[in-house]
Structure formats: structure tokens, C-alpha cells
């Protein structure tokens, strides 16, 4: 351990000055070749920089937030052995490849069990290929199952399976020959061929419940997802949370196509309450949606018809888009519209704002709506619940999310314990959270734990719309701009009343139309006379 070397950022394409968002190692850590050292995040991609060799980290020369380009020294390592072949590769993947375990006499490669950590004598539980099969690099060849993990051994290279040397039930360790593979047209396969990698993942991790739109990648679910390192690298690059992707490969393994489809908004969807078919249906040729085989997304060369400009979606748009898409496809939405008479409430709000002028809090309608929501949720508890398999989880807390329009896209901050807060307190917290969201400073914890959401377009306009439920919540209230409307209780006497258009979307698996109508009626009644919150 005397050959200390500088580890540099490898070729990262056209990217320069890319911020370091995470450092995975510290001085003294032992790392294997291809272990991720740091993560970089440009506007377009998240990239892991893998270790070019096995060794021990001596010192780290960068910190989170630093901006780096190819060639910048990020750390010093002491190590043995030659750098891995992949050291020159762009830092795009999370390959955990050990030294090549392929030998290639006369163009036929012996594929061996790669480094599988501390596991020894691990039973083969399934062999996915047979002699004569054509496989591509990264295709799973077989599955091993230890007491702790199910591991797929992917193919190190493309070729034709010749001779399978093991059978189901055999116990194998690192180095055992699995099969022989004829590479392409029989050309020689050299030891520099990409090495096999093991995805030591727990079998098909359940998809994470939907976080509020705008939430960060769930690293735990990402780690547990059943996917090869190359697919993980692709997912990082595309900003796809693997925990939310349902795999179409064997045993739910996530394939490159699944990630591509998810990134394009055409991915299959999972979720605790997703129908079985959505979770396990075959991949649709054109990007299956919820297990339904649909036509492929139209590919149009827009530039043929006029000048165009291409702009990558923001990270938040990608994340919230994937969540919204999943929710829209999985949840049978119904939207009931209602009108609330807020003539008195508006007078009260204006009066209260005058009184509150000195305190600096200015109340819009929204804090009143939060209180009305709590009242309705208490009266109709199934609206404050979540589906968990065949059970309904009723929550005895009332955390109300509100959609906020930010320069980067839609975010849903959550007012926790709204039942315990006064209307001015809620108003102030909303302003603070909306400001943080718009400045990109809001914490994930401020967007989690919601039990019901309100989406207000009241400051902008419109009459009615269909809000998409923010799973795992089961309902959402949409509100548009109030307007004056002639109203008559008896068809004879008419008067203008300030009317608030309400649109409640609800999950028909949990809620019935009659309950939704009752909820809306109560909600509107509370807004018409806020004294009802006391009841
Ligand atoms: N009817 C009439 N006027 C309304 C109203 C309504 N329903 N709701 C708000 N207003 C008024 C406010 O009183 C305020 O008036 P003044 O400027 O005279 O004080 C003005 O409209 C602007 O309100 P606001 O939008 O700043 O405040 P808010 O509390 O109503 O909303 C927030 C805060 C963060 C929810 C809002 O700014 C926002 O981001 N809305 C967009 C939410 C969204 O994108 N929803 C769609 C999600 S689905 O894609």
C-alpha cells in the first residue's frame, strides 16, 4: 500500500464545472474498483464517479458544492494492482465490476461468478438462459439467493450461450464457471471485456409510496430496486427514482427500457395500491402503461414544420411528472364540483386583514380553506386515509398540503397539524413555505406526511378543473377564482353572491359518490359560515 495516486474526475463529456452533490467515502475507507466515490449533478444528469482501482482513501480534496471538471483531482488513494479498465470510462454508471472474470480461448468466453461480496456457496435458484440463446451484455444469466439477498449475475458481454456448467440448486462462489459464451461471430473475446456485475438487491422492492410531487429520489428504495448497475447508472442519468419503476424483466427486474419508458412518462407504474396487473404485466411494446398495451408515443420531427427549441425538463418537473402520471393512471379519479357562497367570508377576511395589517400577515382565502378541509376531514375520516393493500389506514392527524407554483415546477408543501393552528398561523406558515419552495430551499420533510391537499388557482383564474390526487392521499380539493353570481333561494328573489368554485377529486376505490357529495356540501357550508368549524 505505498503507491498513492491522485484520483481525478474522468471524462464527463461536455460537462464542466459540475457541482459535487455527494461524497460517498472518507479518508481511511477501503474501496473496490468501480465503487462510487462521489456524485456530480449537472442540469442534465446525475453522474457517479467510480473508483478506478481497489484501495484505501488517503485524503479527499473536494467538498460538497465544489464545481469540478474532467481532470480535477478529487482524492488520493493508496492501492494495489492496476487501475480497472473502466477507469477511463465516463463517470456515468455505477458499475461495481470486479476484475474481469472472463477468459476467452478461441472466441469462447468462460463466464464466472463475479465478486459477490462475502457470500460463499450461494444456491443457484434460477437459470434464465439455455444453450443457443443470444444474450446481450447486462442480460441476467442466473439468479443466486443467499439468506440475505437475491442476486442476478448479468452477462458480461453479448454472445451466444454454448454450454451451461451449473444447474439449479448448485452452490457457487466467486470464480465458479457458469457457462460458456461465444462472442458475436466467433471473434476472440479478450480479458478486457467488460466484467460481470452483480446486482445484490433484495428481490423486487415494493415501489415507494408516492412522495409529494417535487420530493427527492428515495435513496433507500433506489438502492433496493432490482436493477443492474448499468440500469442504475441510466436511472441516475435520467433522474428516475428506481424505487418507483416497475420492472418488466424476469422477477420484476428493471430493464433499460423500463427506465427509458418511465423517464418519458410512459413507464409502468407501481405503488402499494397499484393493481396487480400494473405491477406485473408484460412490457408493452410501445411503453406499457399500467400493464395496458398502448400505441407507442408518436415520434414527430417537429423541426420539419417550423423552428423549434429543445429544453430539458427541470428535475422537479421530471419527478412530479412521474408521480402525477402514476397517480392519474393508477387511481380511478372522479371529480365533483361545488359552489361555496363566500360573500360573508370575504367580508370577514378583508376585515381581519385590516386588523392584522401591523402583524405583517396577509390572509388569502387559502388558510380558511385549510380549516374548512380539516373540518370536513374530521367529519368524513375516509378522506383523511390511505389505501394499504386491502386495508384503509385512517390518520388521526390532519396535515394539509397545498400546491405551490414555483419557477421549477409544482411542489406541495405541507401544513402539519393544521387542526391545532390558527388561521393567521396557517397563513404565515403558507407564505413561508411557498417562499422556500419558490427559492428552491424547501426541505423534503416540509413536503411529506400530507393527508389531504388543496390546489388553488384562485389567484390566477378559471372556473373548474380536475386536480390529480397526490397519492397516497385519497382526495384533493381544487379551487378557482371566486365570481359574483345571481342566487335565489326561492326562484323569485335574486341577489348577487360571491361564489367560490370547488373541484374535489377523489379515489373511487376508497370513496363513494354519495360521500364525496356530502364532503363537498359540508366543505362549502363551512366556507359559507366559518362558525361551523366549531361543530
Ligand atoms: N378567488 C379570488 N381571489 C383569490 C382566490 C380565489 N379563490 N385565491 C386567491 N385569490 C387572490 C388573493 O386574495 C390575492 O389577492 P390580492 O393580491 O388582492 O391580495 C391574489 O389572488 C393572489 O393570491 P396568491 O396566489 O398569492 O395566494 P394564495 O394564498 O391564494 O395562494 C399559493 C398561494 C402558493 C397556493 C399560490 O401562490 C400558488 O402557487 N398557486 C398555484 C397552485 C397551482 O399551481 N395549482 C395547480 C396544481 S395542478 O398543476
From TrEMBL:
Q: Where is the Peripheral subunit-binding (PSBD) domain?
A: 226-260
For this record, the Gene Ontology CC terms, alphabetical, are:
cytoplasm
Pfam family membership, one: Biotin_lipoyl
State which Enzyme Commission number(s) the record gives.
2.3.1.-
- UniProt region (Disordered), positions on chain: 85-106
Q: Which cofactor does it need?
A: (R)-lipoate
Q: Name one GO molecular function term.
A: dihydrolipoyllysine-residue acetyltransferase activity
Its BP terms in the Gene Ontology are: pyruvate decarboxylation to acetyl-CoA
- Keywords, comma-separated and alphabetical: Acyltransferase, Lipoyl, Repeat, Transferase
**Top-level EC class:** transferase
Function of the molecule: The pyruvate dehydrogenase complex catalyzes the overall conversion of pyruvate to acetyl-CoA and CO(2). It contains multiple copies of three enzymatic components: pyruvate dehydrogenase (E1), dihydrolipoamide acetyltransferase (E2) and lipoamide dehydrogenase (E3).
* Protein name per Swiss-Prot or TrEMBL: Dihydrolipoamide acetyltransferase component of pyruvate dehydrogenase complex
